Amino acid sequence: MKISTKGRYALRLMIDLAENQNNGYIALKDIAQRQKISKKYLEQIVPVLNHANMLIANRGYQGGYKLAKNPDKYTVGEILRLTEGSLAPVACLDYEPIGCEHSNECATLQVWKGLYKAITDYLDGVTLQDIIDQHNSKMADDYVI
């Protein structure tokens, strides 16, 4: 499984908003500059997140975006599902019940189900706050004498 640039950038956008949540509405140009991502690319990602009510938008002079909820309420899994679609390692797991005509005799189906469970359990268990806390902890340990 490979996460696209869109998924990776969406996650970085959400982390940036979480890290700067006390600064009010954040302009995309500021996020783009901090994250070294094209503002035009962010403009393509924001509608997806906004449509899913993950962001609050404000237009005008003090305009920008902020998270609709606290960072501990967003999981990496839900962000990636919005931008990537399914996180299933094989297409047959995209449907319930499994629509593949070979599913009854498929020797590898349990492998793919196990991998899918591991992926979703992990990604749904990591919040934006977890990422920020882990990064801050790493940065606190990185000092020079």
Provide the descriptors you would attach to this structure in a database record.
mainly alpha, 2 strands, 52% helix
Give the count of helical stretches. Answer: 6
Main beta sheet, described?
2 strands, antiparallel
Query: End-to-end span in angstroms?
Result: 41 Å
Number of strands: 2
Strand order, sheet with most strands = 1-2
Please, what is the average pLDDT?
Answer: 92
Whole-angstrom Rg: 18 Å
Principal-axis shape: elongated
> What percent of the residues sit in helical stretches (DSSP H or I)?
40-55%
The unreliable regions are none
Beta-strand percent range: 5-15%
**Order of helical and strand elements:** HHHEEHHH
The class by helix and strand makeup works out as mainly alpha
Could you characterize what this model shows?
By secondary structure, the protein is mainly alpha-helical. The chain is 52% helix and 6% strand. It contains six helices and two strands; from the N terminus they run αααββααα. The chain has a two-stranded antiparallel sheet. Helix 1 crosses helix 2 (28-35), helix 1 (5-19) crosses helix 3 (39-51) and helix 1 packs across helix 4 (76-84). The longest helix is centred in the last third of the chain and has 16 residues, at 109-124. The termini are far apart.
